[in-house]
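Our example copied in:
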Amino acid sequence: MRKTRSIKAYDIPERVVSYDANMELMHPNRSKMIALALQVLPFSSNASLDGLDLGIGTGYFTLKFLGQYLGAKVVAVDGAEAMIELARQRLGDLTQRVCFCIGDFRELESLIPQETRFDVVYSSYALHHLNHQDKVSVLRQAVKRLKPHGWFLNADLIVAEDAAVEKRIQEIRAAGIVERASGKHERFQDVASTRRFLDELEAREGDQPMPLPEDLSVLQEAGLSKPAAFWVEYREAVTGGVKGA
């Protein structure tokens, strides 16, 4: 199966080991975003839900999902075997409620049996690696697998529509990383070195974040009813919606 630049980037052992530490520095809102996404879901804590994680990474979102819904089961897709191994370690005994699927989520139709249906499909910091066409394709496949009134939620990156606004946001972002790093990380010693690291990282991984209006239009194209942004701060957003009956 083909591998994109983003999958290859996360299948390198040294990159994977540093992933969560980097996330804490670069995306300090991750915990808030996942908590808010879970708060949006209207299900009771004892509901027997079937969830699909698009790009499980190190298992952060799935850990929180299974912790909130004690009767839930999850199918977890990721193209990087090394990341799935970290997810297994993070989830511990909860792996008994997870079916791991190694593969490119752009080919969801061939990865998961046609008859499988989900109450919730969710993703975090994964879909921004896709262009508009691929993102619509992936989400159409995912929404097709949602049960009627099932939910899709995404905690991910966006980009400002105006170049000057985006430049300022990136300046704020780099300064925040330097402050949180507190001089303990060589690549985050100052704004200039941090900016170089971020630029190289985003180029290597093929990042393609969209402006929020385009991101919401993709969700609508994919078949969600009245998609919404539930939280937005600078370059990050929690978006999603419900599949109609």
Observations:
- Residues 193 and 214 are 31 Å apart (CA to CA).
- Residues 5-11 have pLDDT under 50 and may be disordered.
- The first strand starts at residue 50 and ends at 54.
